[in-house]
Design a protein that fits this description.
It is a single chain. This protein has about 425 residues and is α/β, with parallel strands linked by helices. The protein has 2 domains: about 200 residues, UDP-n-acetylglucosamine1-carboxyvinyl-transferase, Chain, CATH 3.65.10; about 210 residues, UDP-n-acetylglucosamine1-carboxyvinyl-transferase, Chain (Alpha-beta prism), CATH 3.65.10.10. Helices cover about 30% and strands about 30% of the residues. The strands form 7 sheets. It has a 4-stranded mixed beta sheet with strand order 23-24-1-25. The radius of gyration is 21 Å and the shape is elongated. The protein starts with a strand and ends with a strand. Bound molecules: ligand EPZ.
């Protein structure tokens, strides 16, 4: 377990570069398994989920090497079909390799995926949808075995625009020469990027980024190169930190269009935000006001991954704010940790009501999961005095160079 020690109450000032998106690079790494020849991904963040994804590819027989923020994968000799339990159980992103394994080998074996505890995280949408294409599933304890004896295309309607299920279907469709049509698809930018990546590998893909995606695979795909899109949630997190503490930061290598709903909420709270090209500047005097209702939804709505960081930014805002999460209704385990800093938050079912307090005070709290942990970190940065965040290693799953980036902005943080 790692502990992050924070001395809060300081404004954040300076310029940092946003890294490539965790939820963008993972599906692309899974897609490299389909290439006959090497693929190269640049601007890959140095985070534990990417390290684990690289380990999964090596276990499947790929040659994987990393130079700085570039990862090269050669899947030419990949013959493995089984993801070891210790890797598949380590993160939700492991389930995305299922579709690629089915496309390449027609079978796969993995344990129930792990990842952030945000409430129930089944994969029934994935399994039901793959069955439409002819995939059979057997379970033995926590091990799931998939076979695809008779591959065929089809039209799948997802009951919810699930990011992972959409990505898995797009990857599996590469193993079928008949059209696969995904209705009710997720529209997240990371999903659209996967569509563009598969097209660059030689696949026929239409409609990525919309709610109907049509794919046609069944032919050899070539390796390709791509720069990973900026992490919109890392962007939202650093903006929320500065909103909470006060200061003046500039984020480079990002894209304001990927997080407009977050920018709107932070402006409504009283921050000054300036966007130009791939840069976002935020100025805040730390005196914010409540924003009323913030409803986390699927893209292009307010992102669920940003609700904990933005909630933490509102803990000292004058007036009240209400947070609802329609994607993960139980994603409020961090609230009890925020109360340890003196926050006034009430929760029931799928919402939290925040009434701003004059000050927050240093505390010892626990990172409950990746984004909840970011919320706890923001409370610690805004609190007077010293705080200790337990299980801070969870933050390293999704935030590269977290301590050094914050130190560059003037924060007093260190891993104990
Ligand atoms: C992806 O998770 C992201 N993870 C999550 O980011 C993100 O919060 C989520 O999408 C929503 O945007 C990665 O991309 C690795 P879903 P995923 O399938 O694919 C239910 C982070 O912090 N559901 O869109 O697992 C599910 O329980 C992480 O970076 C089923 O019921 O999310 C949830 O309520 C956290 N059955 C809703 O759908 C299924 O088979 C949306 O889940 C699949 C999902």
């Amino acid at each position: 377990m790692q502990t992050l020690v924070v001395r809060g109450g300081k404004p954040l000032c300076g310029t940092i570069c946003v890294h490539g998106a965790k939820n963008g690079v993972l599906p692309l790494l899974a897609a490299t398994l389909l290439g006959n020849g090497p693929s190269e991904l640049s601007d890959c963040p140095e985070i534990t989920d990417v390290l684990r994804a690289a380990e999964i590819l090596r276990c499947l027989g790929c040659a994987v090497c990393r130079e700085g923020n570039t990862i090269r994968v050669d899947a030419t000799k990949a013959c493995g079909i089984c993801i070891p339990p210790e890797l598949s159980g380590s993160m939700r992103g492991s389930v995305i390799f299922l579709g690629a394994l089915l496309a390449r080998h027609g079978c796969a074996e993995l344990s129930a995926p792990g990842g952030c505890v945000l409430g129930e995280r089944p994969i029934d949408f994935h399994i039901r949808a793959l069955e439409v294409l002819g995939v059979h599933t057997e379970s033995e304890g926590s091990v799931l075995r998939f076979r695809w004896p008779k591959r065929h295309g089809g039209v799948i309607t997802l009951p919810f625009p699930s990011v992972g299920a959409t990505e898995n279907l797009m990857l599996a469709a590469m193993g079928v020469s008949e059209p696969v049509v995904i209705c009710g698809a997720a529209r997240e930018p990371e999903v659209a990027e996967l569509g563009r990546f598969l097209r660059a590998m030689g696949a026929e893909v239409e409609g990525e980024g919309g709610s109907v995606i049509t794919l046609c695979g069944g032919k050899p795909l070539r390796g390709t190169e791509r720069r990973v899109l900026p992490d919109r949630i890392e962007t939202a997190t650093y903006l929320s930190m500065t909103a909470a503490c006060g200061g003046d930061i500039c984020l480079k290598n990002t894209d304001p269009e990927l997080l407009r709903p977050v920018l709107d909420v932070l402006e409504k709270a009283g921050c000054m935000i300036f966007c130009e090209g791939s840069e976002i500047r935020l100025q805040s005097d730390g005196d914010l006001c409540g924003v009323g209702l913030v409803r986390a939804e699927t893209y292009p709505g307010f992102p669920t991954d940003a609700q904990a960081p933005v909630s933490a930014a509102l803990l000292r805002a004058k007036g009240c704010s209400e947070i609802e999460d329609t994607v993960f209704p139980c994603r409020f385990r961090h609230i009890a940790e925020l109360r340890k800093f003196g926050a006034n938050i009430q929760t029931d079912n799928a919402r939290a009501v925040i009434c701003g307090v004059r000050a927050l005070y240093g505390a010892t709290a626990t990172a409950t999961e990746l984004r909840g942990g970011a919320g706890v970190l923001i409370a610690a940065l805004a609190a007077e005095g010293e705080s200790r965040i337990m299980h801070a290693e969870l933050l390293l799953r999704g935030y590269a160079a977290l301590d050094t980036s914050l130190q560059k902005l003037g924060a007093e943080v260190r891993f104990a």
